[in-house]
Design goal:
- The protein has 211 residues and is of the alpha/beta class.
- The chain has a domain of 147 residues: Aldolase class I (TIM Barrel).
- It contains six helices and nine strands, in the order E-E-E-H-E-H-E-E-H-E-H-E-H-E-H.
- Strands 3-1-2-4-5-6-7-8-9 form a nine-stranded mixed β-sheet.
Length: 211
């Protein structure tokens, strides 16, 4: 697999295991989308990074047990080493959160009750693509649908999506502050409309000026 970087930080986004945990991030290179608000554009093309074996990745990981696999789009690596990495992490009793754009469906094995409580998925909704995948099998265990909100149109659209999917998965609204949407505005909207089943995602690592 081509790895862009491995680093330790706070898990600042919502995820199945609790926002704010200390985690080791494995950032894989390459993505099947090119979102304009991507905060890691170096990960998009797949041209950057270092080829690493699972053994080399595990050597860097050491005895750390909280792992976040991100990108780019990490699920692109199914069939090219990601299965072996996940199996090795599970054998080492790690808890793994995978940050994905939701356009690639994982193999059924990694959606089964066998890994319930051990593998979680944070799906970042993409307004600009029609290839988005939302199925009960994708989100039924440890799944969080994170909807980015950068303007009033997306805020109202996020409300409609939340009403559609609230029976299938946990949902979070994620204000894109860099695009002009304030956290206070999203919270105000949630209170006005009694959106009690949705989480408010505040990027803790950015508030703390951490990677």
């Amino acid at each position: 697999m081509k790895v862009l970087e491995i680093f330790n930080s706070i898990d600042g986004e919502v995820n199945a295991f609790g926002q704010g945990r200390i985690s080791t991030f494995i950032r894989l290179s390459g993505c099947n989308l090119a979102c304009p608000y991507c905060d890691t554009p170096d990960s998009i093309s797949g041209s950057k990074g270092t080829e690493m074996s699972v053994e080399e990745i595990m050597a860097v990981l050491g005895n750390r047990k909280n792992v976040t696999i991100t990108g780019g789009e990490p699920l692109m690596w199914f069939g090219n080493g990601l299965e072996e990495l996940l199996d090795t992490l599970m054998n080492n009793e790690c808890r793994v959160n995978i940050e994905t754009n939701g356009t690639i469906l994982p193999p059924e094995k990694y959606l089964s009750t066998m890994y319930m409580g051990e593998i979680g998925y944070t799906v970042d909704y993409k307004w600009e693509t029609e290839r988005q995948i939302f199925t009960p099998s994708f989100m039924r265990f440890n799944g969080i649908l994170k909807i980015p909100v950068s303007n009033e149109i997306e805020l109202h659209g996020a409300y409609l999506l939340a009403k559609v999917f609230h029976d299938e998965c946990n949902i979070a609204f994620s204000p894109i502050v860099s695009e002009g949407m304030s956290v206070n505005r999203v919270l105000e909207f949630m209170l006005q409309n009694n959106i009690h089943w949705v989480l408010l995602n505040i990027q803790i690592h950015k508030l703390l000026d951490f990677k």
